[in-house]
Amino acid sequence: MEQEPLQSGKSFLKETGQPHGGTVFLILTPLILCVGAIGTGWLVYWLPKTAYAGSSWQIISAVVAVQAFLLTFLLFLVFPKYREFSDQASTIIEATAVKGERYVRALSGSGLGYWDLDIETGEVFMSASMMSMLGYSDRDRLDNFQFWLNSVHPDDAEGLKRTMEYHIDKRTPDYSIEYRIKRANGEYVWVADKGRAITDVTTGKTIKLAGVTQDVSNVKRVQEVLESRTLELEEAQNKIEQEMQNVRKFQKAVDSSTEAVSITTPDGAIVYVNPAWSALNGFTEAEALGRNPRLLKSEDTKTDIFVAMWEKIAAGVPFHTEDVMNRRKDGSVYQAELSIFPIREGAQTLFYVALTQDITLRKDVDRAKTEFVSLASHQLRTPLSAIRWYSEMLLSKYVGELNEKQRQYVKEIYSGNLRMVELVNALLNVSRIDLGTFAVEPEPVNLVEICDSVIMELTPGINERKQTIERIYASAPGTYIADPKLIRIVFQNFLSNAVKYTQPEGHVAVEIATKENNLYIRVTDNGYGIPKAQHSKIFEKLFRADNVRQKDTEGTGLGMYIVKAIVESSGGKIWFDSEENQGTTFHVLLPMSGMTKKSGMKGLS
Amino acid sequence: MEEEKKMRILILEDERQLAKAVRDAFTDRGFEAIVVATVGDGIKQLENLKMVDIIWLDHYLLGAENGLDFVVQLKNHSSWKNIPIFVVSNNATTTNIRSYIQLGVTNYYTKADYDISQIINDIKYALAQKASAQA
């Protein structure tokens, strides 16, 4: 292994120390020179007086020559030692220079700048690499500390000074700080200093602070990016945690819901059921997961319900029904209210959420109530008939003349009874609709005739209110297959409402037409209209709009419910436009093929 | 002046209140009205009276048999099968009404929806048709 040149120099010095003989040479040379000079002087003085006066110059020359010989001898004795030492020294110097150069190269290669600060004088030495880092010419520079401080970013200068002072006061083991410093072009770079105080060995006083500076702007930039990324990640994590919390919240809610909830993938595998679902259907979660919801299917469900269901949910629209019959694990069947909500992302369905409720009891209660209404209405008919007939007979010529007042009163009884009969009939119709027992008995009918006969019945009222009625029959079909009673109920309700809920001198129009292979019926008035807020309730049972309730007390609130049921049971559509105080238009579309026969216990009356 | 022969109507109606109203209405208009409340009594009256011109029939009657049973018996009887029958009921089902029509009754009415005079007018019209057909 090659020994470090500096190391070898140091070890050489240690091993050999300074060469011997130098001191002897330094002492002996003047001694020899002095003794020689004095001796020569004395000889010059003394010899002429002696017998050797004749050969004085030879003797003196000989003495000087001895002197010179002695000195030369000494010189030759010491010189090689010094020569050797000088050789060693130059090796060391060379090694030091090489080492220094290596450091310089290392400094410039590493991008480190070297500096030292003389604490006493405030002079700062900055290496060429340091200067070039700051964008100055690539040369060492000696300058005042103020230059440095001026270059430091104003926000960081105080911190830098304090950190230096702390270290100089030995309160910190190292001097280490990051700060921004201005480059020659005026832009700031992030740099990191590392340094150490240099102490005078003898006084123990800190005299210098030396260290290196590194351009860490890249690191800083990366750090900043990392920080912002970290921040983003933290935010994302927070969001995820929040979402997780939401999910947990909803999961808890769904888990503890009393309504049976199941989640199914689009290809029909159950991926979640809540405890209520298991309790309702008798299948445990483990038994249900992965299976198709068909495991609840019973033959009691009409197949067209599933057709309608797929049509809706495949289109991403929620589906609702009360007519599904589900089979439990133990084989028992219950009537279910089923709502399916497709959960979508864009055009893709992720899964279906299904809510199921056992409505067997509710349906039974509903049915019992409807049956009660039906029964009660039937029972009411007999006493109503009695009132009708006796009041009729009182008004007839056969029992003698009543006086005018008596006649008026009996007429009121008679017309009051008629209202009651109408109400009972409407209630019976509703109960037949609700029980699904109403019959449809289609036959070819002339719609124009039926409509005209309804108008005929209403004519006294129309005349009394001086209203005009417009009939648009231009494209009416000659015959149409319909239950005459049902279609009559439709016209009767539309037209009597239009007349009743239109001011005197108002206008009513009725249209029967063929439209896009459908039968189209329209009844328009320019009357009171329906308040916007109550549009959604128009077809509800026993609903009457606020504005007409104040004008007319006689409506039952059952008419439009019945009309809608008739239209929809015939595969038709009903809708309306209405604006309060502007008027109302009802539209009906029925399939051109006509109504389909449906056997039932009772027709509507 | 010979008095016009009184038309005879057999009324099968079990509700006392309604039976009285119907009987009075017909009597007022010059009919001879006989009221019974069961199918059995109705048959008995037919046997006793030999002939009635018209029958007013409720569906639900006292006793086990209803209006349909009565119509079936009449239609199976050679001398009674042509008597016009007007079914006037409040509670007959669609199926029952269809059965009545199929069995050949003249008409069906829901009581609460009609004045007696409307029904009597129809009956008079039917009797006039029948008389002109026989003449």
Automatic annotation (TrEMBL), chain A:
It catalyses: ATP + protein L-histidine = ADP + protein N-phospho-L-histidine. Residues 99-171, 246-300 form the PAS domain. The chain crosses the membrane at residues 21-45, 57-79. It comes from the Bacteria. InterPro entries: HATPase_C_sf, HATPase_dom, His_kinase_dom, HisK_dim/P_dom, HisK_dim/P_sf, PAC, PAS, PAS-assoc_C. Residues 375-594 form the Histidine kinase domain. It is an enzyme of class 2 (transferase). Its EC number is 2.7.13.3. Keywords: Coiled coil, Kinase, Membrane, Phosphoprotein, Transferase, Transmembrane, Transmembrane helix. This is histidine kinase. It comes from Candidatus Lloydbacteria bacterium RIFCSPHIGHO2_01_FULL_49_22.
TrEMBL record, chain B:
The keyword Phosphoprotein applies. InterPro entries: Bact_response_regulator (IPR050595), CheY-like_superfamily (IPR011006), Sig_transdc_resp-reg_receiver (IPR001789). GO terms for biological process: phosphorelay signal transduction system. It holds the Pfam family Response_reg. The modification 4-aspartylphosphate is found at D58. The keyword Phosphoprotein applies. Residues 8-126 form the Response regulatory domain. SUPFAM superfamilies: CheY-like. PROSITE patterns: RESPONSE_REGULATORY (PS50110). Keywords: Phosphoprotein. It comes from the Bacteria. SMART domains: REC. This is Response regulatory domain-containing protein.
